[in-house]
TrEMBL record:
<dbReference type="InterPro" id="IPR041399">
    <property type="entry name" value="Catalase_large_C"/>
</dbReference>
<dbReference type="InterPro" id="IPR020835">
    <property type="entry name" value="Catalase_sf"/>
</dbReference>
<dbReference type="InterPro" id="IPR018028">
    <property type="entry name" value="Catalase"/>
</dbReference>
<comment type="similarity">
    <text>Belongs to the catalase family. HPII subfamily.</text>
</comment>
<dbReference type="InterPro" id="IPR043156">
    <property type="entry name" value="Catalase_clade2_helical"/>
</dbReference>
<dbReference type="InterPro" id="IPR024708">
    <property type="entry name" value="Catalase_AS"/>
</dbReference>
<dbReference type="Pfam" id="PF00199">
    <property type="entry name" value="Catalase"/>
</dbReference>
<dbReference type="GO" id="GO:0004096">
    <property type="term" value="F:catalase activity"/>
</dbReference>
<keyword id="KW-0479">Metal-binding</keyword>
<dbReference type="InterPro" id="IPR024712">
    <property type="entry name" value="Catalase_clade2"/>
</dbReference>
<protein>
    <recommendedName>
        <fullName>Catalase</fullName>
        <ecNumber>1.11.1.6</ecNumber>
    </recommendedName>
</protein>
<feature type="domain" description="Catalase core">
    <location>
        <begin position="34"/>
        <end position="421"/>
    </location>
</feature>
<dbReference type="InterPro" id="IPR002226">
    <property type="entry name" value="Catalase_haem_BS"/>
</dbReference>
<keyword id="KW-0408">Iron</keyword>
<dbReference type="Pfam" id="PF18011">
    <property type="entry name" value="Catalase_C"/>
</dbReference>
<keyword id="KW-0376">Hydrogen peroxide</keyword>
<dbReference type="InterPro" id="IPR011614">
    <property type="entry name" value="Catalase_core"/>
</dbReference>
Length: 697
């Protein structure tokens, strides 16, 4: 039943406004949204900007209060991105960027220390590593000109277009306020109620329901800066850029059943994987690339580059690789470094600048405020992990936990103390200091103070359609099935149909598959605020089209038991390690197994505690007697059954066949012997196997 206290309208950018009726008495105080000072709010969807596409204004007390209160809701863990893992490393510039950027770190050959933190978004610090969720990808560059923080995600777009909606997004996706569950998951009433009323979320929902949200490893995710930023060269010329991190190992994801079982097998799966890779010298690497374009190109697009719910396909503007990041040192102390590191998108160096993206503008305020709240002091920048590795000179003094001991009395400027023989302190420098890039005086980035979105922001479906069309058939089945699963957890009757009505603007087949999976009638298509357009599919948006056929950096499980052939094990382990992967021996007992040569080989893990979901492929080396015993062991049957169900390669000795038969394994290209055919198969997943083993939407 509709709430008659409110009228629903659509704004200039297609955003949903629920408002007190204009012709009502306005005497119902409970129906009117106010600030904490009791001041009624006229627009809870848009920040106050200077012109339609201009920067957000500091005077917007509604935005500042809303974000300020949100930043201080929970202490001391992060409001979002609470569960994270991090590592030290180095960024090396591999291309000369002087044509578009004057930042010192981009001079070819320059090496810059970094500290990179990966995280989930919705869960608390004690949640698990592998839920369906966005992954944070934040890099702190300790440059010679100061710290630059590139704070992004593994998905190139976001749910919202304006930062004033961020508290609503997070409140809806976090644990429900009355019952404090579910933890670390979006499959519940409040998130989908909110998302179904916010068509601008549609593109991000497509990514979040895809396999991008269930990565195999933090080492196999892409990273994105999300927003359009600016680069500025020595002459002051400005160029728009979007940032991309490309993993050396290629993209890899799990399948949904595998992700669920990983949560049970190892709550710390991603954290352990990252730590152990670095600890063993298999250092994770990413290439940093940019999409660079000018104002003319931006003006030629059918969408707005300031809209964080949109991308620019790589086929339209190829990614230019400009550097390489290698993570080669684990933190010495988790709390001191990973927990206390404070990222802020406002931390930029000369040569990198902002745009008027309203989501970015809000983040510039929010992050600094929340760091003070979480770390308890305005001096959080003095914590070693946050401290710049270049000189810091200013007149800021005192405050809680002040660690420096300034000398003299120069805590202000201008001053004439130096003329009297005292230290007068530092001064501004117009030549080398940070200078904001000039905006456009001829466009709609200045003008009246408005709570409004640019008209192009109203297209909420074209890029979601682009994403859908760019996937493989298997990936589309996963997306549709994810929507079905999530919406099946929603108890609010109107919500699933409302969301499916939005999806009809993306693709009729997608909407029909979700409706059929839920067992509901296909609802009437939701009215689009701006008619969607068709954009050429982009292979760069597909995980499966960007996987690398390699086992480098991956882990292969080898199941053995008493009587297993010693030579076969030795030969296979050697071949796996030569290919750059890790061999992990699994046995019924952690003490190992007595092999065919009479020697005992100690296991790396016990069968019950080392299920096949923690491996990228598995091999089974058993004698006839060993296979007969394992065919009666539920954990062994499940080991190969799950490997097959999770579309992985299975290599097996001839004598191990009874175990595979008991597990119902049907031969295909991914079920091999133990030779080169297994190593070749282990380099990929077998998605064509999936329709024969599970029903998908």
């Amino acid at each position: 039943m509709a709430d008659t206290r409110f009228e629903t309208t659509t704004g200039n950018g297609g955003e949903t406004h629920q408002q007190a009726p204009a012709k009502g008495s306005h005497g119902d105080a409970d129906a009117h949204l106010t600030t904490n000072q009791g001041i009624r709010v006229s627009d809870n969807q848009n920040s106050l900007k200077s012109g339609e596409r201009g920067p957000v204004l500091l005077e917007d007390f509604v935005l500042r209060e809303k974000i300020f209160h949100f930043d201080h809701e929970r202490i001391p863990e992060r409001i979002v991105h609470a569960r994270g893992s991090a590592a030290h490393g180095t960024f090396e510039a591999t291309d000369d960027l002087s044509d578009i950027c004057k930042a010192a770190l981009f001079k070819k050959g320059t090496k810059t220390p970094v500290f990179t933190r990966f995280s989930t978004v919705a869960g608390g610090a004690g949640s698990v590593d592998t839920p369906r969720d966005v992954r944070g990808f934040a890099v702190k560059f300790y440059t010679t000109e100061g710290n630059w923080d590139l704070v992004g995600n593994n998905i190139p777009v976001f749910f919202i277009q304006d930062a004033i909606k961020f508290p609503d997004l997070v409140h809806s996706v976090k644990m429900e306020a009355d019952r404090a569950y579910p933890q670390a998951g979006s499959a519940h009433d409040t998130f989908w109620d909110w998302a179904s009323l916010m068509p601008e979320t549609t593109h991000m929902l497509m990514w979040a329901m895809s396999d991008r949200a269930i990565p195999r490893s933090l080492r196999t995710i892409e990273g994105f800066g999300i927003h359009t930023f600016r680069m500025v060269n020595q002459a002051g010329k400005s160029t728009f850029v979007k940032f991309h991190w490309k993993p050396k190992l290629g993209l890899q994801s799990t399948v949904w059943d595998e992700a669920l079982k990983l949560q049970a097998a190892d709550n710390d799966y991603h954290r352990r994987d990252l730590y152990e890779a670095i600890d063993t010298g298999a250092f994770p690497e990413w290439e940093l690339g940019i999409q660079a374009f000018d104002q003319a190109l931006a003006d030629s697009l059918d969408w707005d580059v300031l809209d964080a719910t949109k991308i620019i396909p790589e086929e339209m503007i190829p990614v230019r690789i400009i550097g390489r990041m290698t993570l080669d040192r684990n933190p010495d102390n988790f709390f001191a470094e990973t927990e206390q590191v404070a990222y802020c998108p406002a931390n930029v160096v000369p040569g990198i600048d902002f745009t008027s993206d309203p989501l970015l503008q809000g983040r510039l305020f929010s992050y600094l405020d929340t760091q003070k709240s979480r770390l308890g002091t305005a001096n959080f920048h003095q914590i070693p992990i946050n401290a710049p590795k270049c000189p810091v000179m200013n007149f800021q003094r005192d405050g809680q936990m002040q660690m420096t001991v300034p000398k003299g009395r120069a805590n202000y400027e201008p001053n004439s103390l130096a003329a009297h023989g005292e230290d007068g302190g530092p001064r501004e420098c117009p030549m080398t200091g940070f200078a904001t890039a000039k905006g456009r005086a001829d466009h709609d980035e200045t003008g009246e103070k408005l709570r409004i979105r640019a008209e192009l922001f109203a297209d909420h479906y074209s890029h979601a359609r682009l994403f859908w069309k760019s996937q493989t058939d298997s990936e589309r089945a996963h997306i549709a099935s994810s929507f079905v699963f999530e919406l099946s957890k929603v108890g609010l009757e109107q919500v699933p149909a409302r969301l499916v009505a939005n999806l009809r603007n993306v693709d009729e087949d997608l909407a029909r598959r979700v409706a059929d999976g839920l067992g509901i009638d296909l609802p009437k298509m939701a009215k689009a605020a701006r008619e969607p357009i068709d954009i050429e599919p982009s292979d760069a948006l597909s995980i499966q089209k960007n996987m690398k056929a390699t086992i480098e950096g991956r882990q292969i499980g080898i199941l053995i038991a008493d009587g297993s052939d010693a030579d076969e094990i030795t030969t296979l382990k050697s071949a796996i390690e030569k290919a750059g992967a890790k061999a992990f021996v699994v046995a019924p007992r952690i003490g190992g197994a007595k092999l065919s040569d009479g020697k005992v080989l100690k296991a790396d893990g016990q069968l019950l505690g080392s299920p096949s979901q923690i491996f990228d492929a598995v091999a089974v080396i058993l004698s006839e007697d060993g296979a007969a015993v394992m065919a009666k062991e539920g954990a062994a049957i499940q080991f190969v059954m799950d490997a097959f169900g999770h579309l992985k390669a299975i290599g097996a000795s001839e004598t191990a066949k009874p175990l595979l038969d008991k597990a119902g394994i049907e031969p295909d290209d991914g079920v091999t012997g133990l030779g080169d055919d297994f190593l070749k198969a282990a380099a990929r997943r077998f998605y064509d196997r999936e329709p024969s083993i599970r029903m998908l939407a």
